Amino acid sequence: MSNKKTRHSRLRILFVSAFTTFCILFMCAGFMIADYNSRKMGFGYGSLRIDVYAAEEQVKANILGRKQTLDITESTEKWAGRIWNLLPPGVRAVFWFFEGECDGVSALIE
């Protein structure tokens, strides 16, 4: 009697697989909604609350409507270069890829 099957094992498998499929589809729908909203915001249909970028040896920040400009000193540039060289190549590639996307988007907008 040790090989006794549980009652309705096929029905249990059906419900578990259906529930798992529903969860995966629900998660994919959430990703699609988040992607839609982020693209909508990034292309000018909304406004970003935090915008930080570097230009002409300065860091310009617009955080919740407050604009600030910070100068980049020579010692900061040296330390940033040292930290950049310590990063693994995969991480640096992600930043280069993102920079290429930003350049491509600005060219498309113009």
Verbal overview:
This protein is an alpha+beta fold. It folds into 2 domains: 9-46; 48-110, no CATH class. The chain contains 3 helices and 3 strands, in the order αβββαα. The protein has a 3-stranded antiparallel β-sheet with strand order 1-2-3, with no helix packed on it. It is elongated, with a radius of gyration of 25 Å. The chain starts with 8 loop residues before the first helix and ends with a helix.
List the strand order in the largest sheet.
1-2-3
Percentage of residues in DSSP E strands:
15-25%
Count all strands and give the number: 3
What is the gyration radius calculated from CA atoms? Answer: 25 Å
What is the count of helical runs?
Answer: 3
Mean pLDDT: 79
Secondary structure class reads alpha+beta
Shape: elongated
- Unreliable parts: none
How many independent structural domains? Answer: 2
Instruction: Return the string of H and E elements.
Output: HEEEHH
Cα-to-Cα separation, first versus last residue: 76 Å
Estimate percent helicity: 55-70%
How is the biggest beta sheet arranged?
3 strands, antiparallel
